[in-house]
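Next up, a specimen:

>
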Amino acid sequence: MILVTGGAGFIGSALVWGLNQKGRDDIVVTDHFGLGDKWKNLARRHIDYAVPLDQFRSWLDTNSRDIEAVFHLGACSATTERDADYLMHNNVLFTKDLWDYCAARNIPFLYASSAATYGAEEEVFSDRHEHIPSLVPINKYGFSKHMFDAWALKQTSAPPAWFGFKFFNVYGPQEYHKGAQASVVYHAFPQVRDKGQLRLFKSYRDGIDHGEQRRDFVYVKDIVRIMLHFWTNAKSIPSGIYNLGTGEARSFKDLGTAVFGKTCWSFTFLGGNDSNRGIPVEALIGNDRQLMSIMSQLR
């Protein structure tokens, strides 16, 4: 069976879709469902069952022989989370426990890192391992993801194949439960549909016009294809940490024009918490030639 933590979330449920497309439905999901509607993300998917978080550790103890791979996408992904202890527990210690579990049982381990691990001083978003320990994230969420990445690179006891994926600005279906943390595309659609305007933050950096802040926007199903490629070709791909993006930074204005066309709507710019403050202009994929070679196999 395949274990997907966070399997009812945005990227997790897309991964379950991708596994189904490959004929795999022997999937077990663990997630926090609560009273919300995340369960709907799995309503059209095919899985064996879902394990509540409070039963997950005991479930692991009794099912280790059946697990073929672990995709660990469950975490606190809110870049605005203020409780550092909560982030350490969910994003560092819990991930460390799963790493140790997979290492002891020879189970491939694929986990979600984040481009938020890059800080304000980065000029090149390089995923080369010798560069990663020097990163200085600008928020607690990024710090928690970076802390595990740095820890993983120091381990001598590791799963037989392991991959950490630094996701850039992912967008796509089934983001509705993420609220303010959903992508610009998700928030933009109802704005343009209902008011004919796309609201963007003003720029506070010299030389960058309003709306010209850049990010690497990547479609969630492309992310899924890459993760599955890494897993199915794990024997030929070096374990490690990889950026996952398109390799091309595009402005928010460009994104709006690409999605909604050039007529019948306009931009409006807001003051306040500009998401570009303290962030470098370019959000590019790491300059790792090996990663680009791996991705070229998918084209």
